[in-house]
Amino acid sequence: MEGAPKVRATVLNVSIVLVLAAASLWSQTRKTDNSLSPELERVRAALEKYADPIVAIHDGYFSTLGCADFPYAAKAGHEPYPQGAMGIHFVNPALIGPNPDPMHPQILLYEPDGGKLRLVGAEWFVPKAAGVDKPPELFGHKFWGPMEGHEPLQPTGLVHYDLHVWLFKDNPEGLFAPTNPAVKCTGYPYAVEMESTKIISPK
Predict the structure, then answer these.
(1) Share of the chain above pLDDT 90, in %
(2) Residue 34: what pLDDT?
(3) Distance between alpha carbon 168 and the CA centroid of its chain, in Å?
(4) Closest Cα to residue 50, out of 139, 167, 164, 150?
(5) Dihedral of CA 191/192/193/199: which sign?
């Protein structure tokens, strides 16, 4: 058992490195400037039609129903999400693959607003199972991850990378922050309070 302390120390060191790397990524993305680059202006213009969620459904985006809310401080070993919400995810399965297309996000993000849904952002989503072994990059930003799936709206085993961009609602935590404290699930019957997502160690 002489090697046990060394093994525990190694695991601890790996966990610390992962948390520090995630925190570094977060410090790079945390900007209060929500201005859009010319590329993102083009993306926003292309997605404006999805302000009507019926149009999104017509084009293959389907609601996951739950409004994802992250009201708790991030745990150690988890992605350092700021407290806030992601909203309701509309997923287009036909767009999921190893190579994210900047003009075609896999997910649209909506905020419940009374009896309506308001488009607030988009998410590019790449499963690790697609054969992707390192975080992709779009718009000059690396994706978060790899991380577990967001239980209970996704199975834990759905390990993935993702990048949120708040194209339609300013985010005080920054344009590329994973959550937005200005987005609310309050009063929505399918609001789901969730924990920050566990980071997956690279193998």
Answers:
(1) 82
(2) 81
(3) 15
(4) 167
(5) negative
CA distance 70 to 86: 8
Tokens of 201: 């160690």
Instruction: Name beta bridge partners: 199.
Output: 147
Rounded distance between C-alpha atoms, residue 92 and residue 107, angstroms: 6
CA nearest neighbour of 69 among 154, 161, 196: 196
CA distance 177 to 30: 6
Distances (CA, A) of 82 to 94, 105, 110, 118, 167: 30, 22, 18, 21, 18
User: Distance between CA atoms of 62 and 120, rounded to whole angstroms?
Assistant: 16
Other CB atoms within a 10 A radius of the CB of residue 192 amount to 19
Q: What angle do CA 156, 11, 5 make, to 5 degrees?
A: 140
Which is more confident, 12 or 34?
Answer: 34
Bridge partners for 116 per DSSP = 113
Q: Predicted confidence band at 201 (pLDDT cuts at 50, 70, 90)? A: confident
